[in-house]
Design a protein that fits this description.
This protein has helices at about 5-10, 40-45, 50-55, 65-70, and strands spanning about 25, 30, 30-35, 75-85, 90-95. The protein is α+β, with helices and mostly antiparallel strands. The chain contains 4 helices and 5 strands; from the N terminus they run αβββαααββ. The chain is about 30% helix and about 25% strand. The protein binds zinc ion (ZN).
Amino acid sequence: MILKSDELFHRTPGYLGWQDENWLACCDDYCQYLGRVGIDELNDLGIKDEVLQEYAKREDAYPLEEVEEYLYKDGDMSGYLFKCIHCNKYHLWVDAN
Ligand SMILES: [Zn+2]
């Protein structure tokens, strides 16, 4: 899979400190980064179950019970929401301090 690294920086103004290996990809391309989210934001968007189910399949995923309980936009456990620019699917990355 070839990722278009050069486009990454054009798509993500002001988002520093992100590690390339954590940047989500879909349809052979980098996803668009939308911002930090918690469970509340995912509920508002109506995509909570969809992105959590997909997230839970990752090898290094936190247990879903913990994510549902502790995921806050500005919390110690925070979600990073991405969207594929090709198939328009949402994807979630979770990071905890
Ligand atoms: Zn896609």
